[in-house]
Design brief:
This protein is 29% helix and 35% strand. The protein is of the alpha/beta class. The N and C termini lie far apart (58 Å).
């Protein structure tokens, strides 16, 4: 019985701990051929969405991870207006959007731009089968008495679980040349909250970005 209780407790604790944080995986990266690590004076981090709350949370997480690694960075939400791409909210990019962005970047001395855009959010459901094992009743039984003892079968029921996956594309541009230097696709599984997602994504994407040798401190 003690083994049963212990096993149940372990399973419970594992399920609780695994549900506390999301996991971000970098599924693919690209770097412009012949690109050498370059020193950038200031990098702007831009979330390509009109939702200022989500945009700010993700931008700030990436900025914090860049700053932690010695890269001077600033969140776009601190520089550009809430709807800098679509001020009239007609679903189209404003004619003067590029002019506004260019002016702001020059004013701030920004020479690198890190952008993030949402590709998709998918939900899936799958069945997790139950487990079963045997445990003898109390007492020790010699080999010959084995056939006369009964075993208690213990079952843990199966259950359905839902998985939510958020897919993003991240790009890094050299502002002076307007050229795409680096790009990555990522998937974040089961974000528990916006804060949880931002923390997981920010740490993973910056680690991969820096390891690819695009930017130097």
């Amino acid at each position: 019985m003690k083994k049963i209780i212990l096993s149940t407790l372990i399973i419970f604790l594992m399920s609780v701990l695994s549900s506390c944080t999301s996991v971000t995986e970098i599924t693919g990266t690209w770097k412009k051929p012949a690109t050498a690590a370059k020193k950038y004076t200031k990098v702007i981090v831009l979330g390509m969405t009109g939702d200022i709350v989500k945009r700010s949370a993700v931008e700030n997480s990436v900025v914090q991870n860049l700053m932690k690694n010695g890269i001077n960075a600033v969140a776009g939400s601190n520089i550009l207006p809430d709807h800098f791409m679509d001020s009239d909210k007609n679903g189209k990019v404003d004619d003067k959007a590029k002019e506004i962005i260019t002016t702001k970047l020059k004013e701030q001395g920004i020479d690198g731009a890190f952008t993030m855009s949402l590709d998709d959010v998918k939900e899936s459901e799958h069945y997790v089968p139950g487990t079963s094992y045997y445990t003898p009743h109390s007492g020790y039984y010699p080999f010959y008495n084995y056939y006369y003892t009964s075993y208690e079968r213990v079952n843990t029921p199966g259950y359905y679980t839902k998985t939510t996956t958020v897919y993003l594309t991240s790009n890094f541009y050299d502002v002076a040349t307007e050229q795409l230097v680096w790009s990555a696709q990522s998937s974040t599984i089961n974000p528990q909250s916006l804060t949880d997602f931002a923390k997981s994504f920010g740490a993973s994407i910056v680690e991969d970005f820096l390891s690819d040798g695009v930017i130097r401190k």
